[in-house]
Amino acid sequence: MKRILVPLDGSKLSEKVLPQVELLAKRSNAEVILLRVVPFSWPNEFLHVREMGDKLDKEASDYLFAINAKLIEKGISGECCVHEGSVPEVICDFAEENKIDLTAMSTHGRRGIKRWALGSVADKVIQTSSVPVLIHRITGEKVTSSHYKNILIPVDGSHFSENVFPQARYLVELFKAKVWFLHVIDTHIVESFAVLKDNIIEEEEKSIENIQNYFSTIEKRVKETQVAYELVIKKGNPAETICDFAKENEIDLIAMSTHGRGGIARWALGSVADKVVQSSSKPVLLIRAVK
Length: 291
Fold this sequence. Notes:
Elements: E1 3-7, H1 18-28, E2 31-38, H2 47-73, E3 78-84, H3 87-97, E4 102-106, H4 118-128, E5 133-136, E6 150-154, H5 165-175, E7 178-186, H6 187-193, H7 199-225, E8 229-236, H8 238-248, E9 253-257, H9 269-279, E10 284-287
Parallel strand pairs: 1-2, 1-4, 2-3, 4-5, 6-7, 6-9, 7-8, 9-10
Antiparallel strand pairs: 5-10
Helix pairs in contact: 3-4, 6-7, 8-9
């Protein structure tokens, strides 16, 4: 991890992701690129409008330089960039064109001429970014973790859910963290597949057998890395179970792909990821799955 992109909208809320960024940048010696997107394009023929745009651009630059100065004091190198245009498009294009390894952002900011609705922007970035995205949902809870000791990887039994493995492995080895692989048997789907009520137990047993076979292949791969790990199977609503598990087991980071495949032993990982981002108090690393 060499370059971390941090989009900021000028609000204190959007800066809540910075402790996570500082943690990653210090450990990986990564460069931090602060990006402010002014969501307007100013036609030169309208001089007074252009002057207003220039003023906003300067305010954005001054804001980023002030944030960057604090990072420099902490031994983190970086740069500041101000662009104009559609906020999510600029973020995704910038990340792709500038060899960004990770985009880190909070899930909402404030509306206004100098600020953009960071929640909806984060949603769009997650949906379209080819770069891994770290999402920090603003909950009001104080961030106290200064180390990733426990990393949770929810898996649905599909190859799509494994897209997050390389990035997660990097972080696990970087922080010498323990990795938890969690599969949640979606009881609602199991019940819908059971033709008769008596078949529910049989379907659950099939699901458990399928995921145990899947876990055996993961276990072989993980043993080669010599990292601490645990394989866990739970039943319930996938998103709720993931969030509850993360809280109960002092998970520092949830890493998951943004979609998987449907089926008796699998859940729609895309919608699950959305719900986890919306509900979890833990940072969530998202990798958009590629077929």
